[in-house]
Amino acid sequence: MEMKPVHQASCHCGAVVLELKMPNGLEDPRRCSCSMCRKRGAIAASVLLENLKIVKGEDNLTLYQFNTMTAKHYFCKTCGIYTHHQRRSNPHQFAINVACLEGVNPYELEPVKIYDGIHHPSDQN
């Protein structure tokens, strides 16, 4: 699997296309055990906010928030695929759905570490 410094990602139907600057390749690929991530099952990797550009379909993204309403989860309105979210744990980063990256097979990353989202750092005293 070849990671490029600038990579494209898209939803299943192609209505949403992202351009990602990834000079260090996949950063911190992981799964999360929070209720949302557990149900969607995606492997997420980190990119800085300024390194994600929506090149097509911004109007086709829908936003979902829950609990503290801090994280912003984005999905394609047409096919329902989760493309990315702005992280609660680090609001300066997006987490991107690795399966949406063109030419990347997320199954080649196994095993992937699991982040304890049930015990989120922002919830600790």
From TrEMBL:
Residues 7-116 form the CENP-V/GFA domain. GO terms for molecular function: carbon-sulfur lyase activity; metal ion binding. SUPFAM superfamilies: Mss4-like. Keywords: Metal-binding, Zinc. Belongs to the Gfa family. The keyword S-adenosyl-L-methionine does not apply. It comes from Photobacterium galatheae. It comes from the Bacteria. This is Aldehyde-activating protein. Pfam families: GFA. PROSITE patterns: CENP_V_GFA. PANTHER family: CENP-V_GFA DOMAIN-CONTAINING PROTEIN, CENTROMERE PROTEIN V. InterPro entries: CENP-V-like, CENP-V/GFA, Mss4-like_sf.
